[in-house]
């Protein structure tokens, strides 16, 4: 699985509070299914829910949602382009704690393709990145909430 680590890295780059307090961020893979066929190849698609849990969060919720949306645009664009993706691809819940902090759980419906090739009685497994978007993606390097610069990062 490539996407959980990639998303975690993107979140740490863009959310200073989590970068400085990595123990606040937890990720879990839930409800995974493997979509394989009886085709000649053993290649398959791995579909799963990635739950991102941020505990004791005191910041603006947008500071969490926007970096995830930026990451999704490149790594799981169907969440933004299909009706099913728009309805169920990115959901969240937030529990408001007694001290005005929040425990936030974001759930993403992700999939990853894996190519399995057989040659000379060997199987070679290659996880694939998402195909590139048709136009170059220019990633933002600053995040403003309520007009205030809250995060800045480099690629």
Automatic annotation (TrEMBL):
<protein>
    <submittedName>
        <fullName>p2 phage tail completion protein R (GpR)</fullName>
    </submittedName>
</protein>
<dbReference type="InterPro" id="IPR009678">
    <property type="entry name" value="Phage_tail_completion_R"/>
</dbReference>
<dbReference type="Pfam" id="PF06891">
    <property type="entry name" value="P2_Phage_GpR"/>
</dbReference>
């Amino acid at each position: 699985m490539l996407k959980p680590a990639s998303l975690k890295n993107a979140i740490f780059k863009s959310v200073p509070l989590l970068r400085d307090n990595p123990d606040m961020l937890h990720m879990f893979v839930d409800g995974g299914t493997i979509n394989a066929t009886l085709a000649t190849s053993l290649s398959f698609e791995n579909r799963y829910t990635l739950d991102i849990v941020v505990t004791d969060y005191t910041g603006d919720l947008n500071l969490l949602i926007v970096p995830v949306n930026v990451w999704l645009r490149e790594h799981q664009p169907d969440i933004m382009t299909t009706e099913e993706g728009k309805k169920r691809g990115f959901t969240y819940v937030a529990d408001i704690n007694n001290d005005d902090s929040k425990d936030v759980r974001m759930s993403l419906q992700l999939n990853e393709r894996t190519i399995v090739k057989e040659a000379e009685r060997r199987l070679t497994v290659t996880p694939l990145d998402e195909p590139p978007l048709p136009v170059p993606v220019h990633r933002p390097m600053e995040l403003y909430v309520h007009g205030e610069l809250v995060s800045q990062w480099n690629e």
